[in-house]
């Protein structure tokens, strides 16, 4: 296994890696909508937050030499399922057909009181 880390995404807030590569597959840890330049949540509504989480994923994948086109599976965790349609609009800015497989869940709470967290699995 190989740990992947970049300053272009927020540092891990616990005992985990930003991403791990194993056998050509890159597992990106859940990304909160934290702007790595400020250490704070992106400003704006759910669209700005989703965009930041996806940008963090994009930057981690870039560190591994991959793009969003390498993503096979995405998991979206939402504090409010009513944000689903707005997140889909932003999601479409980052992915194109054939779209990755995806799951989306409403959860009771996310770390740091976040409204969204997104994780991804990519393959070489």
Report a brief summary of the structure:
The protein is an alpha+beta fold and 124 residues long.
Question: Can you tell me about this structure?
Answer:
It contains 2 helices and 8 strands, in the order E-E-E-E-E-H-E-H-E-E. It is α+β, with helices and mostly antiparallel strands. It has a 6-stranded mixed sheet, with helices on one face. The longest helix has 18 residues, at 46-63. The radius of gyration is 13 Å and the shape is globular. It starts with a strand and ends with a strand. The model has no long low-confidence stretch (mean pLDDT 97).
N/C terminus separation = 15 Å
In terms of per-residue confidence, which ranges show pLDDT below 50 for 5 or more consecutive residues?
none
Mean pLDDT: 97
How large, in whole angstroms, is the Cα Rg? 13 Å
Shape, per Cα inertia axes: globular
Structural class: alpha+beta
**Largest beta-sheet details:** 6 strands, mixed
* Helix and strand pattern: EEEEEHEHEE
Question: Order of strands in the sheet with the most strands?
Answer: 1-2-3-8-6-7
> How many β-strand runs?
8
Share of residues in strands = 25-35%
Notable traits:
alpha+beta, 124 residues, six-stranded mixed β-sheet
Question: Helices, strands, pairings?
Answer:
Blueprint lengths: L1 E3 L14 E4 L2 E7 L2 E2 L4 E2 L4 H18 L7 E8 L5 H11 L6 E6 L9 E8 L1
Parallel strand pairs: 6-7
Antiparallel strand pairs: 1-2, 2-3, 3-8, 4-5, 6-8
